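Researcher: I'd like a candidate sequence for this fold, 543 residues long. If you have to choose between options at a position, lean toward the conservative one.
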């Protein structure tokens, strides 16, 4: 059954022996320590199907969720910079099923029923959702550089109004929960003109409960409103999300227009560029954090499996041996919240580790409690030992693997070409302004700075720190920032400023007031001409 767990070369994996890779270690710990506990207490029937080799070895996955026409499929096309098989885009609900966009040498579509029997794909357990779902599930394969590092899951547009009353034929929320447990990032897409969260969308977000650390929110088509409207839209979105995502932390929202069309409203262009780069960096980091995410998910699964074992064994213990079983079963189901409290105190378990009371009460109706297994202490101790010692070993291995061979970041598609060159974020702005100009950029405003300089009573062509401080304080910047500016501007470190150094200080103050960051060291193009080691002819003329 566990033939896919790789053994160390030259012998079998003995207790305490090191694994060759983190992936191998995760697989081995799961099959030897956690899986026996799950199988004994019917964990797979109540919570989540058993994990397979592909679940550990698969590339990081990104799940896109949103109402219809919010730009989910367009977002994927924007990242890949090419169409993918099975893609349909339109204002109506065009994507009517789940599409797993993955790497493949040959472009094509694999239907759901064939997909769930492929042991190399992490979708075999989706077979439990039946033909109604599998007929709406395909894998779109294509040779694309982005897909060499990540896979993307496109979902049907979530319905609103009358349309959401029509049954899909399968449990949409449960399918989302299944994907949510296995993906590395969940992106909720909203349209600037479509902020209402329908009942189905609300259920979908609730199905992702427990995966809050994976969730990011994208407010798409933000260029279709002006700045004032965008502020209102952003506030309304945060208010709507606050009612559905019940966490004290504010969820991260990225603003932008994620398609390769001209911006309709350009006044927030800088904001959109910065937001898109932040989102790209988040997605690009997924391969680097994939092993850590799988380790984290295994820990969460182990904690839930332990709690589930305590619940099942407690129900078994409370059942009578002969008469009144049905009545006792109904009583125990009604008392389940109280049982949770008892187990919390008895085993020192956090309330957040327990599954939903309502869901457990519904599922327990279909089981004979007398057939449940009793508490097997050795199985619990084995999982406790895994959490206490084995996980720490894998954590060390993750750091060692990253230091020896860091995983490649996501590249290709929209991730290429936006970092370097004149269209890179911040190019020619702030501290980098004037980097490719022949003249010293500070010269453009030096005549104004000189007027201020000569009112500060320079001696031998220089002003003291006391006089410079009075003028620099007029900027109202904090002393920590002004101190950094002084250090950058005082090129010869003599504690005084000449006219060029003073002009440089004023230029750096201007940059900071415009909202840009200061460098730790002064770039070559900002060094005053008279302080350069090898001043050029044009520098000496301008000086």
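Model: Candidate sequence:
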């Amino acid at each position: 059954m566990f033939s896919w767990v790789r053994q160390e070369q030259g012998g079998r994996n003995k207790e305490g022996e090191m694994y060759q890779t983190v992936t191998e270690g995760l697989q081995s710990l799961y099959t030897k320590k956690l899986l026996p506990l799950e199988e004994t207490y019917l964990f797979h029937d109540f919570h989540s199907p058993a994990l397979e080799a592909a679940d550990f070895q698969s590339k990081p996955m990104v799940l896109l969720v949103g109402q219809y026409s919010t730009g989910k499929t367009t977002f994927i096309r924007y990242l890949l910079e090419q169409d993918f098989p099975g893609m349909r885009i339109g204002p109506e609900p065009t994507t009517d099923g789940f599409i797993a966009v993955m790497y493949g040498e040959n472009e094509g579509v694999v239907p759901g029923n064939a997909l769930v029997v492929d042991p190399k794909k992490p979708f075999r357990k989706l077979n439990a959702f039946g033909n109604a779902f599998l007929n709406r599930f395909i894998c779109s394969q294509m040779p694309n550089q982005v897909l060499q590092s990540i896979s993307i899951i496109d979902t049907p547009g979530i319905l609103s109004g009358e349309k959401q009353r029509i049954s899909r034929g399968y449990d949409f929320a449960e399918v989302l929960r299944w994907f949510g447990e296995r993906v590395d990032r969940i992106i909720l897409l909203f349209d600037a003109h479509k902020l209402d969260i329908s009942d189905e969308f609300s259920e979908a977000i609730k199905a992702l409960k427990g995966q809050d650390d994976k969730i990011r929110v994208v407010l798409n088509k933000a260029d279709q409103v002006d700045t004032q409207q965008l502020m209102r839209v952003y506030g309304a979105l945060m208010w709507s999300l606050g009612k559905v995502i019940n966490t004290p932390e504010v969820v991260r929202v990225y603003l932008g227009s994620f398609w390769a069309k001209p911006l309709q409203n350009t006044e927030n262009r800088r904001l959109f560029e910065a937001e898109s780069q932040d989102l790209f960096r988040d997605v690009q980091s997924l391969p680097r954090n994939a092993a850590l995410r799988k380790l984290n998910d295994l820990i969460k699964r182990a904690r839930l499996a332990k709690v589930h074992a305590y619940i099942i064994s407690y129900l078994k213990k409370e059942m009578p041996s002969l008469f009144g079983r049905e009545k006792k079963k109904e009583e125990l189901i009604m008392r389940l919240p109280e049982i949770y409290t008892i187990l919390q105190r008895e085993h020192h378990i956090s309330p957040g580790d327990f599954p939903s009371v309502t869901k457990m009460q519904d599922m327990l109706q279909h089981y004979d409690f007398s057939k449940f297994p009793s508490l097997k202490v050795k199985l619990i101790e084995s999982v406790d030992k895994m959490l206490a010692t084995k996980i720490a070993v894998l954590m060390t291995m993750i750091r060692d693997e990253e230091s020896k061979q860091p995983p490649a970041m996501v590249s290709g598609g929209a991730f290429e070409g936006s970092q370097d060159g004149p269209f890179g974020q911040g190019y020619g702005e702030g501290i980098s302004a004037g980097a490719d100009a022949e003249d010293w950029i500070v010269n453009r405003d030096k005549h104004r700075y000189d007027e201020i300089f000569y009112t500060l009573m320079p001696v031998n062509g220089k002003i003291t720190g006391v006089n410079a401080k009075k003028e620099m304080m007029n900027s109202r910047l904090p002393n920590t920032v002004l101190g950094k500016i002084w250090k950058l501007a005082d090129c010869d470190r003599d504690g005084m400023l000449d006219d060029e150094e003073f002009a440089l200080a004023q230029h750096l103050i201007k940059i900071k007031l415009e909202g840009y960051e200061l460098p730790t060291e002064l770039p070559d193009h900002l060094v005053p001409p008279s302080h350069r080691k090898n001043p050029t002819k044009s520098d000496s003329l301008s000086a």
